[in-house]
Every structure is written in structure tokens, then in C-alpha cells.
Write a structure and sequence with these properties.
Number of domains: 2
CATH topology of the largest domain: BirA Bifunctional Protein, domain 2
Strand order of the largest sheet: 6-10-11-18-17-16-15-14
Low-confidence stretches: 1-6
Helix content: 25-40%
CATH superfamily of the largest domain: Bira Bifunctional Protein, Domain 2
Length: 494
């Protein structure tokens, strides 16, 4: 056989196709067969009672992930969504004909169903002694080599199905994401929040300062935008009488790709009438604490998880720091008078800190560059950064004592923003003025229908967004956002 891996793969493909042809010639087409499992692997193993070998019969199904034939009896393993389970094939149980089918026609990667009794091996592994089996899908392509798996990062994301088969860590991480989302939904519904679905296609890209994807609606003969936020639709529901509402939905921003950014991502947005940004502080702390306790379940029983980049323990059960944005800027620059400095002085200081500053930036943009590059990455423990400059969000209420800042927070954990929240602006005149006076990169499209809705009266409310992908990076210790997304965007390729 050729030593070229591609040739080897080609040869195996040919051999497997020949086996398929032989099966079909014998009247056994695996793609027309099926099986009805009674249990998943882990659930089946829980049924075993010590000292009661062969007293419980189960039917399980999965992909052959270890397969080595040894004479008249063989141990193999299949894997389903709960993990692997060992199977024991014996010639004297199955009979000569069926055991030969097992030996000669099955391959690593095939999907089978088996029925048999549970027992425990001498090494203590709960195993199914196979009384009958059915091949329900023939794998015509071989799996990656077991001990190396997929080593090319591009292949890991492009062929995620192989990554899930071969990489237990990836499989566990992405399944954990599903449990995180389910927990969030249950947590909010238990607190009388109503889940909503808002349009993905919008005629105005509002609710955030971001570049949208543009598409054309043929029936209406008009350009539409893939939504960049769900905020303005959800706040219309507050006007309509939904006092507590949320959506977990896909958001699309036609911007860069990085370790923490993907153009298509999942966002939780939640709004609560008769609340404010401090009410959102309580909500997000309760939510994240419950996620760590009930989903992550640290082995030591604490509310601590390891921050992969720094090696520090993030303690969700400890003190959550609250600090004003302005105080952090003054501390980072070493300048108590920073906010009274002229633009040229701010540029000079930012450059002395090693930052590149565009001369056309507004002063608040220079300040925010210092925050995002020099301050935010250092905030590992849960930190509520409050009272951000008014230019950064036109949808929040101005602070009554200092109208240059907003009644908002950004919750930063593990050196990245996890959840921004506001006391929502519900004065239609102030909202219109804030839209129209935006500056710099924060300028966004004005949704005039939203302003009309506000004129019908929106109750005071707290609102919050949580990036699900970033939250999963934090909770799972993933290195990149692509590791917590099943199918991240990639350049078109083979």
C-alpha cells in the first residue's frame, strides 16, 4: 500500500465501497436500516448493578470509534452524544455468520446499533455483551488517525463534524454551550421574562454602531439589513405592554474577525420595565453565579473558574468590584485632570502609552482607546465599570448629577466585556436629540419608527446585552470564539 496519506485514504475508500457493494448484494443495505435505542451510553451504564451481570438488557447505538478484532471475541467501543460505551462481540453468542459480518464488513467510523446485556469486565468497565447488531450507516471515508486527529486548525473548523467525532474536548465544550443557553432561558422564564422573536431583516440598521450586511428583498424591491442588534424591536415590546422580555438571537455585523469577534454571533438581550441599570447588576450577578454553580459545577464546590490566559481563579462568589469609568482612566493615565485636558495633550499621553491614535478621532474616542487597550484587559475579576461617557451610547439615560455620563455599566470579566447594561432612555425628545448629536464611530442610523413608539410612552426600564459566545469563552476556557461556535465563518474553500 502507498505511504502517501491521500493514497491510503483513497485505497480505504475503495475497500469500503466494495464492502458496501457486498452488503447490498447480500440484501443488507445499511442506508435502509435503522435501530431504536433504549438508552444513551451514559444512561445505559447507570443501569448496571454490581454483582448482577447480564441482568439488564439495553439497546444502544453510535459510531465505532475503537475497532480491533481478536479471534472469536472482540471488544470495541461506540460513541453517542453522551460519550463512549464498550461492546463485547463473541462468536459463540452471535453465531458464525453474524460474527463474520462483524469481522469482515464493519470498519472504524461505521454507525451501528446493538442489543445486549450489561456486565462488568475484570478491569471494571461496564460493557454490553452484544446479542444482536445492525449496521445502519456505512462510513465510506476513514476517520482521521486516532492519536493525532485533526491538527490543522482550518480543518477543525471547516470539518467540524470530524472534530466532534475525534476531539472529546471540543465535543464537551460545544455541548456545554448548549446547556449554558438552556440555563439562561430557564433562568429568565422562572423570573417571568417572556421570550420574543424579532426580525433578522430590518429596513433600518439600528440599535448599535456597526456596519451591517446588506441584502435585497425581491418581493418588496428594497434593500434590507441583517440586524446588528435586537434592542429597538424589544423596546417596542415594552411600549406594547411586555414588562419583561428577552431574546437569544443571531446578530450580524460586517466587521473584522479576531479571537473574540465573529461577524455572526449570538446575543442575549433582556429588558425589564420599572427597573434600571442597578436592577440589571443584580440580574446578571444572579445569572452568572447560577451558571457557574449549576452548569459549570466546579469540582471543589466553589464558585471559582480558571481564567485560561492569566491562570488566575475568577471568583464569582467573591466581591464584584464597582468602579467609575472616569476613575479608571485617571488611574491608567496618572492624570487626575485628564478630562479637562485639551485634545493634543490627550493624544500625546495616549501615544506615550504605546497607543496609535488617529488625529481625526474625537476626544472621547481617544479616551476609550485607553480604556479598551490598557484597562479592560487587566480586569480579570468581575468588575462593573459604570457611568461611561454619554457619547458611547445614545440609548441610555443621562446621569442626573453628571449629564456628561450615562447611567450604565459594562461588566468586564477575564479581561473582556461580557455584558453592557443601561437605564434605558424613555424620553422621546431626549432620545431624538441624542441620536442626532452622535459623533465619531459611535454614530448610528436613526430609527424614526422607534422614536414614534417612544412618543406613545415606554415605562422606565433596565436593559442588558450578553454576548453568548464571549460568555462561553469565559466559562469554558476556550482560546478563540471559533472554538465555541459550531460552524464559524471561513473563507470559501474545498
Amino acid at each position: 500500500m502507498s505511504e502517501n496519506p491521500q493514497d491510503i485514504s483513497h485505497d480505504q475508500h475503495a475497500v469500503r465501497r466494495q464492502k458496501l457493494a457486498e452488503l447490498r448484494a447480500a440484501g443488507a443495505d445499511p442506508f435502509r436500516a435503522n435501530v431504536a435505542p433504549t438508552h444513551f451510553s451514559a444512561d445505559a451504564k447507570k443501569l448496571y448493578v454490581d454483582g448482577a451481570d447480564y441482568s439488564v438488557t439495553v439497546t444502544v447505538a453510535g459510531r465505532l470509534v475503537t475497532f480491533r478484532v481478536q479471534g472469536g471475541s472482540s471488544f470495541v467501543k461506540v460513541q453517542d452524544q453522551q460519550g463512549p460505551i464498550q461492546l463485547y462481540f463473541r462468536r459463540d453468542v452471535l453465531g458464525e455468520e453474524r460474527y463474520n459480518v462483524f469481522k469482515k464488513q464493519l470498519d472504524l467510523g461505521d454507525i451501528i446499533g446493538v442489543t445486549g446485556a450489561l456486565f462488568k469486565t475484570k478491569t471494571g468497565e461496564i460493557t454490553v455483551r452484544v446479542d444482536a447488531f445492525t449496521l445502519v450507516s456505512k462510513a465510506l471515508r476513514p476517520l482521521p488517525e486516532k492519536f493525532h486527529g485533526l491538527t490543522d486548525p482550518e480543518a477543525i473548523y471547516r470539518q467540524r463534524y470530524l472534530d466532534l467525532i475525534m476531539n472529546a474536548e471540543s465535543r464537551a465544550r460545544l455541548m456545554l454551550r448548549s446547556r449554558v443557553v438552556s440555563h439562561i432561558r430557564n433562568f429568565l422564564e422562572a423570573r417571568s421574562f417572556i421570550e420574543a422573536e424579532t426580525p433578522v431583516l430590518e429596513n433600518t440598521a439600528g440599535g448599535a454602531a456597526a456596519r451591517p450586511f446588506v441584502t435585497h428583498h425581491n418581493a418588496l424591491n428594497a434593500d434590507f439589513f441583517l440586524r446588528i442588534a435586537t434592542e429597538l424591536r424589544l423596546k417596542r415590546l415594552l411600549v406594547g405592554g411586555y414588562d419583561r422580555v428577552f431574546e437569544i438571537g443571531r446578530i450580524f455585523r460586517n466587521e473584522g474577525v479576531s479571537r473574540r469577534h465573529n461577524p455572526e454571533f449570538t446575543m442575549l438581550e433582556v429588558y425589564q420595565a420599572y427597573s434600571d441599570y442597578r436592577g440589571m447588576m443584580t440580574l446578571i450577578r444572579d445569572l452568572l453565579t447560577s451558571l457557574v454553580r449549576d452548569v459549570i459545577k466546579p469540582a471543589d464546590g466553589s464558585l471559582k473558574i480558571k481564567h485560561a490566559a492569566s491562570g488566575q481563579d475568577i471568583d464569582f462568589g467573591g466581591e464584584w468590584r464597582e468602579v467609575r469609568y472616569k476613575d479608571l482612566i485617571k488611574e491608567a493615565t496618572g492624570d487626575a485632570e485628564w478630562f479637562s485636558r485639551i485634545k493634543a495633550e490627550k493624544i500625546a499621553k495616549a501615544e506615550s502609552l504605546g497607543l496609535s491614535v488617529h488625529p481625526g478621532w474625537e476626544e472621547f474616542e481617544i479616551t476609550n482607546e485607553i480604556f479598551s487597550k490598557k484597562i479592560e484587559p487587566t480586569l480579570i475579576q468581575p468588575t462593573f465599570v459604570t457611568h461611561l461617557p454619554k457619547e458611547l451610547c445614545p440609548l441610555a439615560k443621562l446621569n442626573a448629577e453628571d449629564p456628561s455620563v450615562l447611567d450604565v455599566f459594562e461588566l468586564t470579566i477575564g479581561g473582556m466585556e461580557v455584558a453592557p447594561a443601561y437605564s434605558e432612555q424613555n424620553d422621546p425628545d431626549v432620545q431624538r436629540a441624542m441620536f442626532e448629536t452622535q459623533a465619531g464611530e459611535e454614530k448610528q442610523n436613526i430609527d424614526y419608527d422607534f422614536l414614534l413608539a417612544l412618543e406613545h410612552g415606554m415605562p422606565p426600564a433596565g436593559g442588558m446585552g450578553v454576548g453568548i459566545d464571549r460568555l462561553c469563552i469565559l466559562l469554558t476556557g476556550a482560546e478563540s470564539i471559533r472554538d465555541v461556535i459550531l460552524f464559524p465563518q471561513l473563507r470559501p474553500g474545498a
